[in-house]
Amino acid sequence: MEASSTIEIAKHTLLSGGLILAVGTVTGFVARKLKVPDIALFLIVGMAIGPALLGLINIKSDSALYQIILLFGASYILFDGGASLRFEVLKRVWITIVVLATAGVLITAAITSLAAHAILGVPWIVALLLGAAIASTDPATLVPIFRQVKIRDRVAQTVMSESAFNDATGAIVTLGLLAIAKGSGDFSIAASLFDLLKQAVIGIAVGAALGYLAALLIAHERWAVLAEYAPVVTLVAVIGAYFAADGMQASGFMAVFVFGIMIGNKDSFGFKMLPLEAQKLDEFVMTSAFIMRLFIFLLLGAQVDFRLMGQYWFGGIIVVAIFMLVARPATVFLCALPDRRANWTFNEMLFMCWTRETGVIPAALAGLLLGMKAPGAEVIAAITFIAVLMTILIQAPTTKWLAANLGLLEETKTPRINRAKKR
Question: Is the domain defined by 5-405 classed in CATH 1.10.10.410?
Answer without folding.
Answer: no
